[in-house]
Amino acid sequence: MNLYHLRYFSVLAETENYTKAAKLLSITQPSLSNAIHSLEQEIKVKLFAKKGRNIYLTKSGKLFVTEVNKALTTLDQGISEVQKSNQHDTLIRIATLRTLSTQWLPNTVHDFLATNQKTQIHFEFSTDTGLSPDIIHGLRTEKYDICFCSKVDDQEDIDYFPIAEQELVVITPNNHPLAAKKEINLAETLPYKQITFSPRSGLYSIMRQLFAECGGHPTSVYSIEEDQAVAGLVANNFGIAVVPNMTILKSMPIKIIPLTFPKWKRVFYMATLKQHYKTPAVKHFVDFIKEQN
Fold first, then answer.
1. How far apart are CA 41 and CA 33, in angstroms?
2. Could you tell me what percentage of the chain is helix, strand and coil, using 3-state DSSP and rounding each to the nearest 5?
3. DSSP label of 154
4. Which helix (H) or strand (E) holds 103?
5. 203 versus 81: which is more confidently predicted?
6. Residue 10 sits in which domain range?
7. Is the pTM of the predicted complex or chain greater than 0.70?
8. CATH number, residue 250
């Protein structure tokens, strides 16, 4: 059964006038007449009857137009859903740590789009709570397609691919006694009050291990989850801190001191679900990042 014929029939049933219907459909009146005639022959039912120069729906025609309109509505809804799905296939949902959202990620996305100008790909960005465990939870619940964060666990459902790293530094207020140092051993920070990472932070266990290597643990005046928030407290003279060497530190009123011992680097990863369908757009972006790194 010809779909166009059904649409023509629906319009003609509404107008009950060949001239008006043909004009609405942007076709000739003979073409419309032929289509309706073919439809009536196919279903072996008379759909319209003539009354002078006018036409009207037969009893069978009224029954048929009701079902045809239902079918066309369902079909149009299906087409709309498929089109939305197709648009979704060009969307890449990303969650990232805030420290990667200021420079690394924007630069990477810019380079990707510059090399794929003919491809209609759209990005949706989120920092979630700013914490790696929550970002990974969003990945596992399929809220995100790709995540850029720290490695949370060793479960086999997630593929972690290293994309960047940061060395640890000591940061102090500009007027702090340690601010004059050009480099520093972690043990030298122990006498001073510090802003430390809370247990929810991915750096919490790492910092405890590093301080243990130095023979002690700092006096913590505040315990914070996010590294940027830690830096903010240091900039306002609440204490000193040991943090990854983030780009944002250079714009803050603090002193950044390289750490000589113990040496440790914070590694950032691209996280994706292993046993999960990736749209062509997502797969293309994942491959691009792996090639760049």
1. 12
2. 45, 25, 30
3. -
4. none
5. 203
6. 3-88
7. no
8. 3.40.190.10
